[in-house]
Every structure is written in C-alpha cells, then in structure tokens.
Amino acid sequence: MEKAIVVGATGGTGAAITEELVMRGIHTVAFGRSIQKLEQLKASLGNPQNLTVATGDAFRPNDIVTAAQGADVLFHCANVPYHEMATKLIPLGESVMEAADQLGVKVVAVDGIYPYGKRQMDLVTEEHPKQPHTKKGKVRFAFEQMLFDSRWSRAKAMIVRLPDYYGPTANEASYLGSTLEAIAAGKMAFFIGTMRVPREYVYLPDAAFMIAELASKTDTWGENWNIPGAGQIAGREIVRIAQKASGSVKPVIPLGRAGLSLVGLAVPVMKEVVEMLYLTEEPLILSRDKYEKRIGQVRATSFEEGITNTIRALQGANRRKSK
User: Fold this and answer.
1) At what angle do helices 204-215 and 12-23 cross, to 10 degrees?
2) In the 3-class helix/strand/coil scheme, how is 224-235 assigned residue by residue?
3) Which run of H or E residues covers position 161?
4) Which of 132-138's residues contact partners 24+ apart within 8 Å by CB, and which partners?
5) How far apart are CA 40 and CA 19, in angstroms?
6) Is pLDDT above 80 for 271?
C-alpha cells in the first residue's frame, strides 16, 4: 500500500484510519464533503506533508475517481444516518465500488455487526450465520452482498466488522461516542441500553491499526474480518472511568425502549435505535481467532487507558473551540 484514499475521512472511523495511515508514512487523500472539516482534520494531525484533502460527493463516482488517482487502496468509511440507511446505504456503496472498479483498486469497507442477527455463538467468528432479523441488519447484509458482487471485475473488497466503538474521533454514529462527549463537556449524558450488561467496545486507534494491518496484506481480500475490542465492560464502569477523567459528576441516564421513543419525539433518528437494542441486552462478542492466526496479536488498549485518553482529547478539543 503506497497511496490510499479515505472516503468519509472526517467521520469517526475515517479520521482514525487517516491518522493511522499518515503515521505509517503512506501518502493519504482525505476525501469528504466539507473543506472546513477536512482542513480541521489536517491541522489536528499537524499538517503532515503526506496528507492531502479532496472535496466531493461520495454518491458521485467521478468525484471519487478524480480524487483517488494513483491510489491502490480505498477505505470506505462514509456512512448515512440511521433513518436514511434503507434508501441510501446501497447507492452509496455502489458509487464507491463503481469508482473503485474504474480505478482497479482495493476497497476496505468498514461495517458493523448488524448482519449477524442474534448471537448463535459465544464468540462470534466470521463464519457466524448471517440471519439478520432487523431492517438495518437486512440492509447491511445486502450491502455485503453488493460489495462482493461479481459485476465488480477490477475492484477487490474486504469488510472489516467493528463492535460499538469509542475514541477521540467517535461521533454520533457511535452509541458510546455521544455519551463520552457529554461527560467530557460536563453535561448530563444519555447511555443507550442497560448499564448493567457488559458489552464489547473497540478503541478506534486500535481498530485503525488493525484495519491498516489487514489492508497491507495481499491475502486478506474477498473476506470478512472481525475487529475485536479489549473485552467487555458494563456501562456503569465506563461512566466511572469517564467521570474520574473529566471531573464531572453530572448524571448519566440509561435509555431503554421507552426512553428512546420519548427522546425520538424531538430527535427522530433516536427512534431508529430501538430495533437494535437487542445488542445491548444480548451482546455479540467478536472472536479474535482469525485475526491472530493470520495477522498477529490483536491490539487492545485497556478501557481505563482508552476512555481516559478519549475524555482528555475531547476536553482539549472543547478548549480549542472556546478560544
């Protein structure tokens, strides 16, 4: 991998992957819609010489083709809001794959665990049956089938699957990201799902490292890959660590079905979370066996360190904004 383009570079996973690639010395193009956000991303990384920015619409293949000239790997990190997933996710993916096929490049598609449906293994391997029972799970499964469709004769894809994630660049696409943002700002926070059941989370810098490792290999394409976290942790413990790091003692309120429906009256996208709450009650835990057998040891920052780093980074960003 000599040159890469990150589509959706200012999002949570995109920003983390962009930073990892730049640290590896790879010439990287950060692609997104907002020049202001792209320039802010570049500045936050110290304006490295091996990072360029390019604006465009990921729904227009030609915009991607123009920006990606000379790249050999494309990281598809662009996403759509929950309430637009059914209508926009597949067209977005098709646009990215059409561009990649024109260019003859490899595609790393960042996705989640929804296509697995309800857990059928204690540790979910990449061979876990794909039996989604939710609307979003079915759309995500169709997205996978589209990526691996035979019509793409020149592009090769892989899918990397993350559990819920957190980190300095996480945003509203992460259940936990918005919770930690509020705690860092000293505000009352919401926590989606029960705070008693331990769940799996991956620290985004760890995920970005593992994804870059996979993209640097020659025998990883055409497959699904789990990107596991550092284990399981309950919401109460997350809040304890985050409040200790932030100095905030504002309340953190768990949101179940009733709470999400109520909040959804003001924030419609929150209604869309309700069907995914089964993952907070019967969590999926990703197996690390395939990654460790073929790539190496999983990188797993402890929750204490990862959450503390995230809170401090968010507080630093808040201070810079207030100046």
Assistant:
1) 60
2) EEECCCCCEECH
3) strand 156-161
4) 134/275, 134/276, 134/278, 135/86, 135/275, 136/82, 136/85, 136/86, 136/272, 136/275, 136/276
5) 13
6) no
Start-to-end CA span in the chain (Å): 39
Domains, in order of start, for the chain: 3-165+201-229+284-299 (3.40.50.720)
SS3 content of the chain, % helix, strand, coil (to 5): 45, 15, 35
Place of tokens 């919770």: 179
State the chain's maximal CA–CA distance in angstroms: 55
Query: Which helix or strand (DSSP H or E) is residue 219 part of?
Result: none
Q: What is the mean pLDDT of residues 314-320?
A: 86
State pLDDT tens for residues 151-183. 999 999 999 999 999 999 987 678 899 899 999
Phi, psi angles (nearest 5°) of residue 295: -115, -50
Using the CB atoms, write b or e for 102-135: b if 16+ within 10 Å: ebebbbbbbbbbbbbbebeeeebebebebebebe
Burial class, 207, CB count within 10 angstroms (exposed 0-12 / middle 13-18 / buried 19+): buried
Question: pTM (2 decimals)?
Answer: 0.95
Instruction: Tell me the C-alpha distance between 288 and 47, whole Å.
Output: 35
pLDDT tens per residue, range 50-68: 999 999 999 999 999 999 9
R_g over Cα of the chain? 19
Alpha-carbon span 169 to 14, nearest angstrom: 9
